[in-house]
């Protein structure tokens, strides 16, 4: 008899049941989408912020050169998977056919990660041992009237000459625009600074604050070095993540409150329509707990199916958000499902409190008077 009453009550009021179902489905979908993005946003934002380039600096405390061997030792000690890229830099002054210029020795294969913001005209050099090609800053190229494909010859105090082919012109928006970029090994040899570097830049994963942890670890091991995160990149990541997560939480809260109010008002209307039904049940001996059980069961059944639909719709919405914002899909992490179920249950139980109290307050004699 109990289940007949429950199912019949749902079947006879399909319009109002549909409103409750829609409200809970929307709430579940938003919670699912926001939760999925929340748990996946750290890795997605970390990938996005890599376009800012390096976020970690290692150099000498007294503006002297540091040992390349020491830098390589640091790289080997780094936890597996922590580093996206790491590269040494060496600067020095040499002479071209027209004037003195600054050369910058680098590992070419790390530059796409450490300096992804470079605007490159030509073909970027991808191997570290290239002794025939160089890249040149835009300002220096304009001053020397050089284009991609032209050649430039360097000379030093030992009357040595080294010709290079210009493979690319880069625009970095900083001092690099006035430099000639060569491979590190040549720069060390040409400047007589074997196995020495000016400093090193690293791109460190910062999904859970690893930058600061890694910096503190290295400071204890190498007190003679200046080791610090590059704040404008690593700090921005945490600030952006906090703001986005806060916004997602606020959106979810607002949607859940609106869903609660919608379910609440609809249930109150249903209780008003069923006043005679509950009055008759009381007259036939139904207890308070029987009324509570019936109303709660009806609402929880709606909530269960609405949550299942909301999980599916929320996953689809999460994919739309992921592709629109991060150009990649969002993974549905395991905690998303229990969080959605729990919040849907809380919304349902909160929404059913007032309607249930009204049903219990129905006076049998007044409602059935004259029947």
Structural class call reads: alpha+beta
Question: What's the gyration radius in Å?
Answer: 34 Å
Q: What composes the largest sheet?
A: 10 strands, mixed
**Helix content range:** 55-70%
pLDDT < 50 runs, ≥5 residues: none
Beta-sheet strand percentage?
A: 15-25%
Question: H/E order of the elements?
Answer: HHEEHEEHEEHEEEHEEHEHHHHH
Shape: rod-shaped
- Alpha carbon gap, first and last residue: 23 Å
> What's the tally of helices?
12
DSSP strand tally: 12
Give the averaged pLDDT, no decimals. 84
Helices and strands in order, then pairings?
Layout: H1 2-11, H2 14-49, E1 56-60, E2 66-67, H3 68-77, E3 83-95, E4 100-106, H4 111-114, E5 119-122, E6 133-137, H5 138-144, E7 151-155, E8 161-171, E9 179-183, H6 184-190, E10 196-197, E11 199-204, H7 210-221, E12 225-229, H8 231-273, H9 275-283, H10 288-326, H11 336-360, H12 364-367
Parallel strand pairs: 4-9, 6-8
Antiparallel strand pairs: 1-11, 1-12, 2-10, 3-4, 3-11, 5-8, 6-9, 7-8
Helix pairs in contact: 1-10, 2-8, 2-10, 2-11, 8-11, 10-11
